[in-house]
Amino acid sequence: MIRYATQKDENAIYELLCELEGMSLDKEGFHEAYRDYMKDDKMHCLVAEMDKEVAGVLNLRIGTMLCRCGKIGEIVELAVRNSMRSQGIGHGLFQEAYHIAREAGCVRFEVSTNRTRLGAHRFYEREGMERSHYRFIRYFSIEK
C-alpha cells in the first residue's frame, strides 16, 4: 500500500535513508528537515507499506522552473529497504509520484542520482527515464 507519510513514519524513514546512504545521518538535522517536509505543500512524501512496515519512501518536490515555463516534478529521495527490494516497491512509489506530478500539471519529471549507484540508474531507465544532464555540487562544509 502506498500512502502519504505522517509524523509517525519519521523514524522508519530515517532508518531507510541511513541504509541508503550507508551511514547514520544527523538525527537532529533529519528531524528538522522532516518537519519542514511535512509542512511544505510542494513536497509529497510517500511511503510504501508491507505487512504494516514502512518498506520504502519517495520524496517528490513540485516546483516551477522559468526555463521550462512550468512546473517540474523532481524525485529528491527514493529508498527501499534492502531486504525488500525486487518486489515492485520502488516501481509502485515511482508510478505514484509520476501520477502526482502529472496531475499537478508538471511539464517534466526528473531525478538526480549518485553516479556510483548503477542499480538506481538501471531502475530509472526501466521506468522510462533517460540520462540527460550532469549535476555539479559544491559542499559548504569544505569552505574555510
From TrEMBL:
Molecular function per GO: N-acetyltransferase activity
Organism: Enterocloster bolteae (strain ATCC BAA-613 / DSM 15670 / CCUG 46953 / JCM 12243 / WAL 16351) (Clostridium bolteae)
Domain N-acetyltransferase: 1-144
Record-linked SUPFAM superfamilies: Acyl-CoA N-acyltransferases (Nat)
Alphabetical list of CDD domains matching this protein: NAT_SF
A Pfam family matched in the record: Acetyltransf_1
PANTHER family: GNAT FAMILY N-ACETYLTRANSFERASE, LD18367P
Protein name: N-acetyltransferase domain-containing protein
Parts forming coiled coils: none
Keyword set includes Manganese: no
Keyword vocabulary terms for this entry: Transferase
